[in-house]
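Quick start: what a row looks like.
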Amino acid sequence: MKFKGFSKKQLLDIYRQMAVSRYLDEKQLILLKQGKGYFHIGCSGHEAAGLAAAISFKPGFDYAYPYHRDQAFCMGWGMESRDHLLSFLAKEDDPSSGGRQMPQHYGHRELNIVSQSSPTGTQLLQAVGAGFALQRNGGKAVVYVSMGEGTSSQGDFHEALNWASRDKTPVIFHVENNHFAVSVPIEDQTAGASVYKISAGYENLARFNVNGTDFFETHLAFKKAVERARKGKGPSIIVSDVVHLLPHSSSDDQRKYRSEEELNADKIRDPLILFAKTCIHENIATQQDIDKISKDVNNQVNSDAEWAELQ
C-alpha cells in the first residue's frame, strides 16, 4: 500500500526517525540536568521539514550545510543517534568535530555534511561556493543549506541568493521559520514579516512557501527544487513554517516572552502528531504501530546514551 508515493515501510521509517530526533532532544536535556552535557539547541517542531528535505537528496553525493536545528535532517541524511550523542557529550569519536565543537554543530565527512561555525549565516556563502565547485566539475550534485528566519536579516543571506541566482548554482536554501530569532518575533525583525516576500526579485531563483509541519507538502517542494537544480535551472529557496516546541536553547525560557496561548497553539501543530494522524487516517498504520515505534525509540535512545557515556 502506498500514500503519495511512499510505501508503508517508508512512512513508518520516516516516523521512526522523527521520533528518534524528538526523544534525542528529551534525552539530551536530561543529560544536561545531570551535568553530563553543557548546552543544547532543540529540533523539536522542525522534524517533518528536516526529514522531508533529507530524503530528497543523495547523501554522500550531494552536500549539506545544516544549521543547529537540523538534527532530524541529519538523521534522514544518514547520521545515527549515537553520532548525535557522541557530539553532545564531546567524545573523541564524535564524527562532527571529534568533540571540539559545541553540540548541534553537525558534520560527517563520509556523508558530505559540512560542519558550520557558530556565527549564524556563515554557512550560506560557503554552500554557494560548494555549488560553484560542483558546477565546475560538471556533475549533477546539489547543495543543501539551512537557516532560521532570523538569519535572513543578515547580509550573507542576500549575498548568497544573489550569487547563486546569477550563476544558476545548484543550491537549495531552506529557511525554517519558527517565528522567533531567539526571543525576537518575525514581525519585529523582517520587513512584511515574510522571508518569502523579501526573497523576491532574484532571477533564476524558484521560491516555495510551505507548511513545514506537513511532511508531504514540504517533501513535494524539495522534490521539485532538487530536480530543477539537477537540470541546471538554478537555485531554490524553500520557506517552511514550523513550530517552536522548545525554548531557543537550554539557556533560554520562552515562557518569558510567549503567552500560554501561543505555546499551546504550537503544540496543536506538532509535526509528529500530525504525521501519525495522517498515517492512521489513511490506514497506513494503527495507533498500536505508532505506540510500538515510540516505545522502541525510547529504549534505543536510552541504550545509545549509555553506550555513548562509556566511550
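That is the whole record. The mean pLDDT is 96. The first helix runs from residue 8 to 33.
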